[in-house]
Amino acid sequence: MVVPVLLRRTPGTLAAAIRLHRVAVGAPAARFMSTHVTNAACEDHEPGFLGSVETFFDRAAKISGVSEKSLTGIKVVDSVLSVKFPVEIDPDTHIIIEGYRAQHSRHRLPCKGGIRFSDEVDLQEVEALASLMTYKCAVVDVPFGGAKGGVKLNPKKFTPAQLERITRRYTMELCQKNFIGPGVDVPAPDVGTGPREMSWIMDTYRQFNPQDVNAAGCVTGKPVSQGGVRGRNEATGLGVYYGVREFLQFPEVQKMSGLTAEIAGKTVIVQGFGNVGYWAAKFFHNNGAKIIGIGEHDVAAYDPNGLDVEAIFKHRLEKGTFRGFGNAQIIEDPIKIMERECDILIPAALERQIGLKNVKNIKAKLIGEAANGPITPAAHDYLVSQGKVVIPDLLLNAGGVTVSYFEWLKNLSHVRFGRMSRKWEEAGKNKLLTLVEENAGRQLTPQERRAVIHGAEEHELVYSGLEDTMIGACEETRATAALKQTDFRTAALVNAIQKISTVTTQSGQMFL
Ligand code: NAD
Questions:
Q1: Does ligand 1 come within 6 angstroms of the Cβ of 37?
Q2: 89 or 150, greater pLDDT
Q3: Which residues form the active site (predicted)?
Q4: What's the rounded Cα separation, in Å, for the pair 319 and 307?
Q5: Which of 9, 47, 390, 404 is within CB 3.0–4.6 Å of 17 for a Cys-Cys bond?
């Protein structure tokens, strides 16, 4: 019953592989298809998600100074796995599930990218997301190629037991086709999946590879009890917060947007209140911003006085909707929340949420792409022409893959970050403080002493590594934007393309 379509680029056959790939998965039109939720904001003539990613790539490629030969190799999706398998839903019912995994680039290994459970999943979406992953990893100097997986289903329509069977069966396909492994391809959570699914994936991989001592590194975003790293859950949202905070410091951003440098007091609207949207909202809120609107798939909540993020989260968890929450105004057509007046707009749901149909109504001064691909090329151009600041997905939501990288390192080293050094550092600082006290003639209080000698916990090291990474990548993007006199998305892509080209060129390009 399993119908795999497995394509892999082999030495010297790039063009043939591309041709084969397109033939095997259907006419190009099918690859560029998008469905209703991701079409609402877009005109028919606007490109689909993959077309958008390729359009942005082509613009950056033109000014990257990288050779045509390198560019052709970088742009193409390397390998695609397409499977259909039966799953028993109850003793009398079997359904066929469709799944994909695309590896866009293997210039560095393993490939890395999330697995999405959504009934919007199709091949072009998975390929677009895999391409973005390659560029994203390069932007934040995470040494991975890009990949992405998707299973076409609405997880809300299945019980946990059914979801477990589906996840394990999908993982079995990945194992059999060599599309998973700590040195090959390492999935992570994305829309519709989380730590629970990552646990099932790891456990299944282990059953197939009992001899692999690094098995825990076959997937990231796991619960801490299963080898996950503290801080991964909130990493993407926290990275979004760090990135926006950094951009607000730049004088050119302040000039373009008219915004001041502080987060405190800024009004923020978030679309999508899942993993990324919730954590981003929480970090903005905790740092003094006012979350005035949150959009979900059914309705949006709006309160110009600010929504309490934790309270509205709990309300939605209990009632399944924002309806009935405090003084919040309910907006029945949730996409409209993005058109309200605010300083910062954070699309954190899905791709193609701002297109030619709604872009002229966007009033936010800064748009931070927490989701992948939320703005189409034409809409992006319009926003930039209006002097709005767009911080692109491949930079702003890279916190997730950055901390996934830390988790993978932890799994390969088989030790918690800080375990070997924490007490040693504390002892050293303790001795130093004693000397300082003797010379200063004053004793520190126990609290003061504890605050200074405190050795870093795992989550503190993870936060520190993430903050440093985001600040570095924002600075690099800004510098290229100034050098090339271009927008921040094109600048981030130029940086990515140049870094990937350096890796492939200096490797000798044996297989091109
Ligand atoms: P999630 O499934 O946890 O949350 C998505 C949320 O968006 C859900 O609450 C869903 O109900 C809501 N939603 C769906 N359709 C909507 C619509 N039309 N309008 C408003 N809300 C809608 O997924 P996530 O992990 O938070 O991912 C969100 C986005 O961030 C995706 O584009 C994903 O690719 C991207 N991303 C995620 C990560 C990560 O670490 N999870 C990392 C980088 C990028």
A1: yes
A2: 150
A3: 148
A4: 17
A5: 9
